[in-house]
């Protein structure tokens, strides 16, 4: 779609979920493969869990919360993107509605990569019975993004390389 | 892309084809991706005998499977040209398109679908099908909305 810059860009939205970490890993591999730039966007929806607008300034830990997010994001970038000489990456932390933030950056991107928090299960669920519907961000991006959209499922329990492990191992041993 | 070790090391990209433009764009994208990753591209088409209401229409002399095969072959020829460079195969499945794609993609690295398909004979392959795939597939799903620049065969006019 559209005249795409020859040095392309892969847009990926991250929100701190395991699914979005999987999406970031997939996008990083794809960026390496295509010799493209990785554009990592984390939208902070300040209305989601912020103190009321009439609260006195500094009442919430908004700034601290953001800092946490940023450090987590940095750790994620180190873990998911850099290990074996990752692609050129640009990280953006933006205040705004995630859908709007992502769609604003989608034009010109080779693809938009998002995680889906549904658990990757077996493929034999009967047709017409959604096990877990797509989240609103992914759904709206699917509908409106001008570029290909890649939905990466949350890693299945066996391959999950992250925190929830002990529980999972107990449950799936 | 995550290689699926249990799959004998061969990477597979499954793409849903129903002859619609978005599905051809999806096929083109899948083939480019296949060239890039060395994956085998499998073009899957599903067909069902159309539902009839009230009285049966004579469908016994229609070879639906062959028609479906023709659609997918034409799409491949259309997208790839006469000499298909990517490793590509096609598969005709009787049944529901979403179900077929999910089954085929269970051992794939990637599933590619157009954002909407035909209604009618070849089944609405995407749209509802794409939605269903996105919600249930175990591998990453790529939804192609339109031709990606440079992939449209014979000097696309979009």
Task: Describe, in plain words, how this protein is organized in 3D.
The complex is a heterodimer of chains A (173) and B (158). Chain A has 173 residues and is an alpha/beta fold. Chain A has one domain: Rossmann fold (3-Layer(aba) Sandwich). Helix content of chain A is 35%, strand content 20%. Chain A has a 5-stranded parallel β-sheet with strand order 3-2-1-4-5. Chain A is globular, with a radius of gyration of 17 Å. Chain B is α/β, with parallel strands linked by helices and 158 residues long. Chain B has one domain: 3-Layer(aba) Sandwich (Rossmann fold). Chain B contains 4 helices and 5 strands, in the order βαβαβαβαβ. Chain B has a 5-stranded parallel β-sheet, with helices on both faces. In chain B, helix 1 (21-37) packs across helix 2 and helix 3 (97-105) runs parallel beside helix 4. Mean pLDDT of chain B is 79; it is low at 1-6 and 120-126. The chains are: A alpha/beta (173), B alpha/beta (158). Chain A binds chain B through residues 1-4, 26, 29-30, 33-34, 110-111, 116, 118, 120-125, 127-128, 130-134, 138, 142, 145-153, 156, and chain B through 1-2, 29, 36-37, 96, 98-99, 102-103, 105-106, 115, 130-132, 134-150.
Compute the CA-based radius of gyration of chain B. 15 Å
What average pLDDT do the residues of chain A reach?
Answer: 75
Question: Remind me, CATH topology of chain B?
Answer: Rossmann fold
Task: Work out the radius of gyration of chain A.
Answer: 17 Å
Order of helices and strands of chain A, N to C? EHEHEHEHEH
Helix content of chain B: 25-40%
Class by SSE composition of chain B: alpha/beta
In CATH, the homologous superfamily of chain B goes by the name HUPs
Number of domains of chain A: 1
Q: What is the tally of helical segments of chain B?
A: 4
